[in-house]
Amino acid sequence: MTQWVFTFGDGKAEGQSSMRDLLGGKGANLAEMSNMGLPVPPGFTITTEACIWYYANGRSYPAELKAQVETGLAQIGTLTGKVFGDAANPLLVSVRSGARASMPGMMDTILNLGLNDVTVAALGQGSGDERFAYDSYRRFIQMYSNVVLDVDHHNFEDILEIYKERKGLTLDTDLSAADWKHLVGEYKRRVEEETGSPFPQDPREQLWGAMGAVFSSWMNQRAITYRRLHAIPESWGTAVNVQAMVFGNMGETSATGVAFTRNPSTGAKELYGEFLINAQGEDVVAGIRTPQNITEIARINAGSDKPSMETALPEVYQQFIAVAATLEKHYRDMQDLEFTVERGKLWMLQTRNGKRTAKASLRIAVELANEGLLTREEAVSRVEPSSLDQLLHPTIDPKAERRVLATGLPASPGAAQGEIVFNSDEAEAMKAGGHKVILVRVETSPEDIHGMHAAEGILTTRGGMTSHAAVVARGMGKPCVSGAGTLRVDYQAQTMSIAGKVLRKGDVITIDGSTGQVLLGEVPMLQPELSGEFSTLMGWADGFRRLKVRTNAETPADARAAVEFGAEGIGLCRTEHMFFDEERIVAMREMILANDEDGRRAALAKLLPMQRSDFVELFEIMAGLPVTIRLLDPPLHEFLPHTDAEIAEVAAAMGADPKKLKARAEELHEVNPMLGFRGCRLAVAYPEIAEMQARAIFEAAVIAGRKSGKPVVPEVMVPLVSIKAELDLVKARIVAMAEAVMKETGASLDYIVGTMIELPRAALQAGKIAESAEFFSFGTNDLTQTTYGISRDDAASFLNPYINKGIISIDPFVSLDQEGVGELVQIAADRGRKTRPDIKLGICGEHGGDPPSIHFCERVGLDYVSCSPFRVPIARLAAAQAALGKAAAGQA
Ligand code: ADP
Ligand code: MG
Ligand code: MG
């Protein structure tokens, strides 16, 4: 018999934290906390396998489930001394979803289940607090009706608002037992109006309704979108947790709260959280009342006049911080905790590894290692490489003038600026139209995910540090200011106003997610500083990695930035990019359009000094590090003159007839330029071009070597080779030029000549090509295009349906297709090494900065990856993790 139900409570559990796949994250950790002897309300978890079964069998349940659920309920009953559905002593439960990966706010929890017109009276009597009983009942009716019966929240909110207004009450806590009792009646009436049937009174019907709703919420639109954005497979399913209720809404010694064991924004070692007295469940994150700080120091720093938990509930506070410390030590990571205090007794309701910013992630990893809780290897493996991107975000220049409109909470760090927009669809549309936008909302909900993605940053006027906006923005690495309560947002008028100042949609603001400030206009920003924990952790990573990390760069600014970021050379200098300059392109066009070799040589003579001085500068910046220079690889059409004015300009420079020139340009027009006259094909047809470039490279190497005393070893790379003879022809010209330059200058030069492997034929012929090539650099962009027969420029329209239908899991231009394109890389590496054991192997496509592709490069044993400057830190960390992962796999 399959075990579909796993119980926990009273210091033991049938599950444990390692059973996350089966029990979901929440269930596995509830079991673990029970096993640790922490105070956890008893309950049981229905496995993710039951959810999978549910979908595989037309949304029905396995036969044994019913009996197992009854056994689970009975066990909770024994531990709590209550009975589910009993009229005199009713057990109430929560029904909570929990998948393997946490999906914040994606599926709704139902609290106080088991209440009905009879049990509510018993609850009032048993607790001696009728107000509490009816407060719990109205919450249950609202949650259950929303989640299970699909009755929108606004129905209940409207009823409540109208009632409060009529009675002149402001806060929910002002309502009496009689008020709630009255409202419960109205709520039930509304449910019946909306659904056509009375609110279900049978607790077992409620329970199965709630469990079914959790399972079906796995396939709701919010969950599907979240999974797509976070690459979570649909096949995982979710677990359901049924757990005895504990009540934070039982008066002044009761409370509910959330906390992180360290600051999730900065990583500082300080307990960080919020709570509310006399409240339940989601009240803290829902922004209904402004939450209170947990620690006294946080209260003082926040300037709050509401007592902290440390002073309001000192004994529970002491117990809570001890539990927090125990959990952090046990999980060896920063924890995100949910708890409830029922009449002075602490109950733990959830623990999980807390989400954090990249900055916090680095600091926590480094400090946990320094505290001896982690090894350095583990610390390096803990930080998500692509999250480093966040640290490379700009911040506001401290010297800049700040015209502060309002200050909210520093919910997610980094600065962002853009035009304000008040809804998510519009944010997406404006972004598509090339605008930078700041999404401004009263608060966000899961329906705003796409708008948050499109926005540079997010600003809300309500909600705390743990509000939806704050949590999601941190996860996305987007700057966010939350709870800027002095701003008034008017969705109807599309305005945001403060103290008589009105900003309209399209007005520009800057938000500072590190201070919480909202600033008027565009404020100067600064590039981030990469010191402190960043450099410590990167230093550790560098010690573990085997792959070298180079950069793709041709401008001095990019090269300098890359060296800052730790690049160990240039893996790809695209020389054609050096000719798009206004003055150079004319000479370039003269060269391309010349009728004969003499004409070409005349144009090349103009280009030589420019090209040489570029290389001198690059070589000086790279100071002795290897530099791979790719010979001209033009899509020819990008250089051809198009307008009559452009043709006239080139004609004048050449002293040629514009009409003839135009005819020549038309002759060179290609139908399919990406598979056309490019790469070494140009050098084969016009070797004098390769000669000029080789001369520029070698002369620059001599000059830069003399100047800096650090001799450069240029690596001259021939693009788009598919036949060994092509490479031989071009290589002969390069070698001859090196000899000539050495003779002319009297200097000696070290250099190597190699090729790109970016065509399937080259990969297959790599053994032969390696007879001439001293290195291979895998041009995986072109190799992907040519292996799939997909043009990268045209792919967008049909790749998306492929991804949506699950034919491929990710765009192969973003992450290397390890199976197919990867096989060609593997073949070329093997065959190349067989011919030339010391052949240098690298990769220089977009994939060089993509962590999964970097893991692949480690497995194939390449020598280096090369990526854009801003990806260099990501690649360094990913390369270290790849090396560590391989070591771990080797040990196992
Ligand atoms: P989410 O996954 O959205 O965090 P949870 O299942 O954790 O949803 O529940 C939402 C809220 O309800 C949490 O704040 C939690 O503390 C509270 N809650 C859940 N179960 C119980 C319970 N048995 N007793 C009291 N509060 C509960
Ligand atoms: Mg939770
Ligand atoms: Mg290419």
Query: What is the oligomer described by this structure?
Result: single chain
pLDDT average, as an integer?
A: 92
Strand pairing plus helix content: what structural class?
Answer: alpha/beta
Distance between the termini: 33 Å
Compute the number of helices: 34
What is the strand tally?
Answer: 34
Strand fraction: 15-25%
- Taken from the alpha-carbon principal axes, the silhouette is elongated
**Largest β-sheet summary:** 8 strands, mixed
Helicity, in percent? Answer: 40-55%
- Which regions have little confidence, pLDDT < 50, spanning 5+ residues? none
Distinct ligands, ions and cofactors found in the model: adenosine-5'-diphosphate, magnesium ion
Q: Over all CA atoms, what is the radius of gyration? A: 33 Å
- Spatially, the strands of the biggest sheet line up as 15-25-24-17-18-19-20-16
Write the topology of this structure.
Elements: E1 5-9, E2 12-13, H1 20-35, E3 43-46, H2 48-56, H3 65-80, E4 83-84, E5 90-91, E6 93-99, E7 110-113, H4 119-127, H5 130-147, H6 153-167, H7 177-195, H8 203-217, H9 221-230, E8 238-244, E9 255-260, E10 272-277, H10 283-286, E11 292-293, H11 296-302, H12 309-312, H13 314-331, E12 335-342, E13 345-353, H14 358-370, H15 376-382, E14 395-396, E15 404-407, E16 409-412, E17 415-421, H16 424-432, E18 437-441, H17 449-454, E19 457-460, H18 468-476, E20 480-482, E21 488-490, E22 495-498, E23 501-504, E24 508-512, E25 517-520, E26 525-526, H19 533-544, E27 548-552, H20 556-564, E28 570-574, H21 582-593, H22 597-622, E29 627-630, H23 644-654, H24 658-668, H25 680-685, H26 687-708, E30 714-718, H27 724-745, E31 752-757, H28 760-764, H29 766-769, E32 775-778, H30 780-788, H31 796-804, H32 821-835, E33 840-843, H33 851-860, E34 864-867, H34 872-891
Parallel strand pairs: 4-5, 17-18, 18-19, 19-20, 27-28, 27-34, 28-29, 29-30, 30-31, 31-32, 32-33, 33-34
Antiparallel strand pairs: 1-2, 1-3, 3-8, 6-7, 6-8, 9-10, 9-12, 10-11, 12-13, 14-26, 15-25, 16-20, 17-24, 21-22, 22-23, 24-25
Bound molecules: adenosine-5'-diphosphate and magnesium ion (2 copies).
The site of adenosine-5'-diphosphate has 16 residues, from strand 6, strand 8, strand 12 and strand 13.
